[in-house]
Amino acid sequence: MLVTLQRIVEGVNKAPDFSMALSTMVGQVREALETDSCSVFLADNDQKQFVMAASDGLRAEDGKPVRVDFGEGIISLAAQREEPLNIADASNHPANKKLSDTNENIYRGLLAAPIIHRRKVLGIVVVHQSVARSFSREEEAFIVTLAAQLAAVIAHADAKGLLVSEHSPWIHSLRGLPGSAGVAVGEAYVSRPEARLDEVTPRRSDKPIHEIRKFRQAVARTRADLKELSMRMAGQVPDDTLAIFDVYQGMLDAASMGDAVENMIKEGWRAQTALKYVVEQFVAQFEALEDSYLQERATDVRDIGQRVLMHLQNRQRRRKPLPDSFILVADEVTASMLAELPREQIAGIISLNGSSNSHAAIMARSMNIPAVLGVDDIELHFFSDKLLAVDGYTGEIYIDPPAQVLAEFHQLAEEEQELRDIVAEHSHLPAETQDGQRISLHLNLGLDVTHDYLKTLNIDGVGLYRSEIPFMMRDQLPTEDEQTEMYQEVLEQFPDQPVVMRTLDVGGDKPLPYFPLKEDNPFLGWRGIRLTLDHPEIFLIQIRAMLRASIGKSNLRILLPMITSTSEVDEASRLIKQAYFEVAEEQGCEVGVNLFQPQLGVMIEVPAAIYQLPAMASKVDFFSVGSNDLTQYLLAVDRNNRRVANLYDAYHPAVLASLDEIARRCEEIGKPVSVCGELAGDPGGALLLVAMGYRQLSMNSYNVDRVRWILRNVRSSTLNVMLAKALQARNPDQIRKMIADKMESIGLGGFVRAGK
Questions:
Q1: What are the GAF domain coordinates in residue numbering (predicted)?
Q2: Is 543 within 8 Å of 575 (Cβ atoms)?
Q3: 359-366 and 244-251 helices cross at what angle (nearest 10)?
Q4: Nearest CA-CA partner of 562 in 526, 522, 605, 524
Q5: What's the chain's average pLDDT?
Q6: Is the predicted pLDDT of residue 252 greater than 90, yes or no?
Q7: Which residue in 280, 277, 267 sits closest to 212, CA to CA?
Q8: SS3 readout for 519-542
């Protein structure tokens, strides 16, 4: 039986015509089991029916496709139970429903096994016999094994489009992971790297000096490419997204990749071989990590390596003519690939590999380009010459869709553009509800803050400047002078608005390359204020630099991360005062005249801080909620761990209850409080936060105008009703549905689904 089974499945795999393969298969199964009929029914989820795709023995008298409605008959029962049914006389079974206009009435014995792929029932294999008897255990095992093997084959065939014909009842579609919201239609533009590391043949060389020179020249050209790409993207994406290219540059440093490649060259290998070995070794190390964010860095390393290889091979970037509007498709869409193509012509993105943590996904979201990632069971060449429709909300991709689907997608895309235009037209107006409740919108910033587009944003200040990013981009701690220069740029960019600078927050998911931290559980370890208070020399230098940068200005605010107790606030305050008087004396400043004592704030991200608020109130000027880490610590979930990442949810009832309690406690003690996590830039999250009483929200630049428009189209009474329902909900899904329904009812559905 095993040999027969393998032969049948191999025949299906190799068949150029899938319908023919199924027809051949059912005949072979019927012959192998010496039974009277074998049929395969495939699920048509749109019509909610099982459709007979092939049969040897069961036939329709009128020649039309045999269909069984979901929930009816023994076939549906096997699908519902997700287990095989072995019935001696199906005609007497209570679930039996005769298939009209077929010869089914001549059969008695029935064996039905569901075809399941990744928890989804794709179809049913059904074997009939004319006599009333149960199938043997061996026969049942054969059919169950066949169904299991057939599952991947059918899923793969569906992805290839082999199930689709002019008579097919299905609209051909693929499902991936939503990467960036929006819908788009366009021709597929398939992109492949000019040079591939896996195509390099290992070779030796007796000219190490020559090979090292070639390698360094290739690195220099790659650096120039990256600098050009970064300049091209300036103004199109937020500064913290643009920092991706600085990460790329850092990978080319001697301490990262350079020394390792040159050492291999000195051992007698060609530069291309050494590069291949080193990069593939780094890629393997990243891919072996459990942290999904760090896993995605394997894509970045491979991208950089292949760019260097392209220059080593003296290849030029060749690109076929670009359609006016296209969907970029690649095995791995990279940030550099995205930056090379004209933004106005990229309608959407499909990356066969990758996740929402990839740099391509991050850039797509910041550029408002719909993206779908992680598309399985498909090869790149199947997209060639195809027309595609992409839904970045659901992860759905339609291949050569019919006219009605195209018309719908074009309509949705037009509506989304109209919505973006409306939002942009009102960007100069204040962020306030229809009943006049004013909300301050602030920016979260990272590396580069000198872009001109920031000056055009209608914002009220910087709610969070992540000072650790410049630390992470260097191979040693930046000096006080270097830090002073960086902080001056930030403060001068927003001279009349408050700028909240968070002190160094490293550890956990943000290690410093020159300050290695090896801990069993870094998220509960030596990070944030814990690290800097243990190293006052690092903390004092940073505070001094901030104060020096603020001379003559009054917009500096200092924010302390990872606070769990008042003693940490006391110690940090003492060091800040020490630095303040040192700078005043050294720079000849008059206290309170041209050197102002900055306001001090504490981040609420550790649950313990919630219960320390009254005790901290007299020691600080404001609070800022880091909703990302607060969610992580409340739910005991590492959001970067793919095994439990699905449990990380800021809409969890416990998280919302905690945020509500924080807002109430801060109001009672009379201290301003803001939110600077991702929830503040989420449409539904922003509404709930405002209902709780938060009056300052800090977010990435591309969310500012969207949140402003949403707030201008709601009343406080509506928000209060939404909050009451959210706090009574039992799970995040209930809360999301409530938000979606409410936003739909007040005309804001376009912010949570496709369309306007």
A1: 17-164
A2: yes
A3: 150
A4: 605
A5: 83
A6: no
A7: 267
A8: CCCHHHCCCCHHHHHHCHHHHHHH
Q: Which residue in the list 38, 589, 666, 676 is annotated as catalytic? A: 676
Amino acid identity for residue 605 in this structure: E
Q: In this structure, what are the phi and psi dihedrals at residue 242, rounded to the nearest 5 degrees?
A: -65, -25
Asked if 535 is an active-site residue, the reply is no
Residue 395: the pLDDT is: 84
**DSSP letter at 548?**
H
Backbone angles phi, psi at 34, to 5 degrees: 55, 45
pLDDT at 368: 81
Task: Provide the token pair at 519.
Answer: 């801990």
Span 417-459, pLDDT tens digits: 888 888 888 889 999 999 999 999 999 886 556 556 667 789 9
- 676 has catalytic annotation: yes
- Please report the pLDDT score of residue 470 as a whole number: 66
Catalytic residue among 128, 172, 359, 442: 359
Please report where in the chains the tokens 């990262």 appear, as a residue. 256
Question: How close are the terminal C-alpha atoms of the chain, in Å?
Answer: 57
pLDDT at residue 500 is higher than 90? yes
Integer angstrom CA distances of residue 348 from 63, 361, 422: 42, 11, 22
Rg of the chain on CA atoms, in Å: 31
**Angstrom distance (rounded) from CA 281 to CA 278:** 5
Q: Count how many Cα atoms sit within 13 Å of the Cα of residue 77 in the half-sphere of its side chain.
A: 16
Dist CA 221 CA 487 (whole Å): 31
CB-based contacts of 263: which residues, under 8 Å, 6+ apart? Answer: none
